[in-house]
From TrEMBL:
Protein name: Vasoactive intestinal peptide receptor 1
Native source species: Latimeria chalumnae (Coelacanth)
Domain of life: Eukaryota
Keyword Ribonucleoprotein: no
Alphabetized GO MF terms: G protein-coupled peptide receptor activity; peptide hormone binding; vasoactive intestinal polypeptide receptor activity
Pfam families, alphabetized: 7tm_2, HRM
Gene Ontology BP term (one): cell surface receptor signaling pathway
Matches recorded under Gene3D superfamilies: GPCR, family 2, extracellular hormone receptor domain, Rhodopsin 7-helix transmembrane proteins
Keywords in alphabetical order: Cell membrane, Disulfide bond, G-protein coupled receptor, Glycoprotein, Membrane, Receptor, Signal, Transducer, Transmembrane, Transmembrane helix
Similarity annotation: Belongs to the G-protein coupled receptor 2 family.
Matches recorded under InterPro entries: GPCR_2, GPCR_2-like_7TM, GPCR_2_extracell_dom_sf, GPCR_2_extracellular_dom, GPCR_2_secretin-like, GPCR_2_secretin-like_CS, GPCR_2_VIP_rcpt, GPCR_2_VIP_rcpt_1
Cellular component, GO annotation: plasma membrane
SUPFAM superfamilies named in the record: Family A G protein-coupled receptor-like (SSF81321), Hormone receptor domain (SSF111418)
Record keyword Cell membrane present: yes
Length: 218
């Protein structure tokens, strides 16, 4: 049979050989088109067939009149916009890190947590730059279709940085909650738990995600 498939738009359930699976067009196509069509795939002994009756855009009534040049210009503008934003953020955060490191009076558990949060933002910005360099050098725009090891490593690093960034935001909330709830507590002891949550927990989830992707959709 055929394993379940996620084609980055629709989730296709597992099926036996000879079974045809029919899915409605994703709901977000209705924002751009009035047509409400279906797409289907057949499970064969060689795996899933291509979409029938046509790719998503055509089957779901999406207007594809925009020229490739217009789309390229649009995506270039978006890429330039977030590149400038991440660059300014990277410069500001680096300056903040230098200030916090130089002045010893600012060294305390609260600011140590802030520094780790800043590092997670810096890593997130760097991961975006690395991802763009790898993907655009391969002539791709979103996914690692080429299957190169470097591209996959860049995407894993990118996902880890995003998750670590959110976990350090969680740690900031946990620290404030601890200050409000617990009157006397060892900040140093709790700090190592914060580090474990901020950097360790994302590693567990990303490792599981990576193994799952390699096994089911390499």
């Amino acid at each position: 049979g055929c394993r379940g498939l996620w084609d980055n738009i629709t989730c296709w359930p597992s099926a036996v050989v000879g079974e045809m699976v029919v899915k409605q067009c994703p709901i977000y196509f209705s924002y751009f088109a009035n047509a409400h069509g279906n797409v289907s795939r057949m499970c064969t002994s060689h795996g899933w067939t291509e979409l029938y009756p046509a790719p998503y855009a055509a089957a779901c009534g999406y207007d594809t009149n925009s020229t490739p040049t217009e789309e390229a210009v649009f995506f270039d503008v978006v890429r330039i916009g977030y590149t400038v934003g991440h660059s300014l953020s990277l410069i500001s955060l680096t300056a903040a890190m230098i200030i916090l490191c130089i002045f010893r009076k600012l060294h305390c558990t609260r600011n140590y947590i802030h520094m780790h949060l800043f590092v997670s933002f810096i890593m997130r910005a760097v991961a975006v730059f690395v991802k763009d360099v790898v993907l655009f050098e391969n002539g791709e725009s979103d996914h690692c279709f080429v299957g190169s090891t470097g591209c996959k490593a860049a995407m894993i690093f990118f996902q880890y940085c995003i998750m670590a960034n959110f976990f350090w935001l969680l740690v900031e909330g946990l620290y404030l909650h601890t200050l409000l709830v617990i009157s006397f507590f060892s900040e140093r002891k709790y700090f190592w738990w914060y580090i474990l949550i901020g950097w360790g927990a994302p590693l567990v989830f990303i490792t599981a995600w990576t193994i799952t992707r390699i096994h089911f959709e390499n």
